[in-house]
């Protein structure tokens, strides 16, 4: 904002009414926020159609549903992806001209991906997982299906971890920075994040992307927000559980009926073994100051008294 002599408007707390008030009174045209901020924006009773508001979102993968809800009221969403080790955003899901003729929903599915390396960085790849510094870096097929680890290289990537040569060598095996994020490469060169390696649910030997399950859950009309973790299961080792926050207009509904409806909705949209067997309704999800869900808190409570597979 300072570089372009624009006015910068700061919020002390993310509250829908205040956001919409400032968008109107201050003429806000650009803003940044995690997907949770976008949810707060579109869930608020004061929401209205706008014609000149662009939002950059990061910190967690936005669902196609939240992008659709934003664009239905004229909010243009751009998704960027990166880590602390890459000095913030490394990739950008750059809009393409041919997307303009697509339906809002189809365009949102494409815009929910993590995209391509930005002009200030070098390259991004998706490779078969490696474990040692001597393992070869082999790219997975660009088919949008084969999952691998996302690796980065470029001027924005850190030089290494402070006074930790061992961790640095492991992170940069093969000369590329290994993110620990799992994803796929699409034919158009855009990457799509599927999960953090530590967040993948392994149920009966099958790997389940919590992001895929979360996107299925949040596409149910009464659900505003969602987080999925793996919880203990005597037969399968672990199974997915969904924690959801309902939209304001649905919070007075019968909770058991909503839970059953969400499960049925998921069965119609994802494979049966990925469907959460139980739905926990919360008033809000535990989050960090930057809007990321504290899945470790949810896991600690769910795994209490069990031998925990995930730290």
Compact summary:
The chain is 23% helix and 26% strand. It contains eight helices and 14 strands. Helix 2 crosses helix 3 (64-71) and helix 3 crosses helix 4.
Written account of the structure:
This protein is of the alpha+beta class and 311 residues long. It folds into three domains: 16-117, Rossmann fold; 123-197, Luciferase, domain 3; 200-302, ANL, C-terminal domain (GMP Synthetase, Chain A, domain 3), CATH 3.30.300. It contains eight helices and 14 strands. It has helices spanning 16-25, 35-43, 64-71, 104-111, 165-171, 210-218, 255-267, 295-302; strands spanning 30-32, 53-57, 75-83, 88-92, 116-117, 123-127, 148-153, 177-185, 191-196, 201-203, 206-208, 223-233, 237-246, 278-281. It has a five-stranded mixed sheet, with helices on one face. Strand 2, helix 3 and strand 3 form a beta-alpha-beta unit. Helix 2 (35-43) crosses helix 3 and helix 3 (64-71) crosses helix 4.
Going across the major beta sheet, what is the strand order? 1-2-3-4-5
Let me know the average pLDDT.
92
Supply the CATH superfamily name of the largest domain. Answer: ANL, C-terminal domain
- The run of helices and strands is HEHEHEEHEEEHEEEEHEEHEH
Q: Termini, distance in Å?
A: 39 Å
Just name the CATH architecture of the largest domain.
2-Layer Sandwich
Q: How many β-strand runs?
A: 14
- What is the count of distinct domains? 3
CATH class of the largest domain: Alpha Beta
Q: Main beta sheet: strand number and arrangement?
A: 5 strands, mixed
Number of helical stretches of at least 4 residues: 8
- Relative helix content: 10-25%
Radius of gyration: 20 Å
Spans where pLDDT lies below 50 across 5 or more residues:
none
Shape: globular
Percentage of residues in strands: 25-35%
CATH names the topology of the largest domain as GMP Synthetase, Chain A, domain 3
Structural class, by secondary structure, is: alpha+beta
């Amino acid at each position: 904002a300072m570089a372009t002599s624009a006015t910068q408007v700061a919020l002390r707390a993310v509250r829908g009414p205040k956001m919409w008030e400032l968008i109107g009174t201050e003429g806000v045209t650009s803003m940044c926020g995690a997907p949770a901020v976008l949810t707060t924006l579109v869930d608020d009773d004061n929401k209205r159609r706008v014609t000149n508001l662009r939002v950059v979102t990061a910190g967690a993968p936005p669902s196609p549903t939240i992008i659709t809800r934003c664009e239905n009221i004229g909010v243009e969403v751009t998704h960027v992806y990166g880590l602390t080790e890459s000095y913030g955003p490394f990739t950008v899901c750059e809009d393409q001209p041919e997307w303009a003729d697509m339906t809002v929903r189809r365009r949102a599915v494409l815009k929910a991906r993590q995209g391509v390396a930005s002009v200030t960085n070098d390259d991004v790849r998706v490779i078969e997982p490696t474990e040692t510094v001597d393992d070869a870096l082999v790219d997975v097929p660009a088919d949008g299906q084969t999952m691998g680890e996302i690796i980065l290289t470029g001027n924005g990537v850190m030089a290494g971890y402070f006074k930790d040569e061992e961790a640095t060598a492991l992170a940069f095996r093969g000369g590329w920075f290994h993110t620990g994020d799992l994803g796929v490469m699409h034919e158009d060169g855009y990457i799509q994040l599927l999960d953090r390696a530590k967040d993948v649910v392994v149920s009966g030997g099958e790997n389940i992307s919590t992001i895929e399950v979360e996107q299925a859950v949040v596409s149910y009309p009464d659900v505003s927000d969602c987080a999925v973790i793996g919880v203990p299961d005597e037969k399968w080792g672990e199974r997915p559980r969904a924690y959801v926050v309902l939209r304001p207009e649905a919070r007075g509904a019968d909770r058991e009926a909503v839970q059953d409806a969400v499960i049925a909705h998921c069965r119609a949209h994802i494979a049966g073994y990925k469907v959460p067997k139980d739905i926990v309704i919360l008033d809000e999800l535990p989050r960090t100051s930057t809007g990321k869900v504290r899945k470790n808190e949810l896991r600690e409570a769910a795994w209490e008294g069990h031998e925990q597979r995930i730290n």
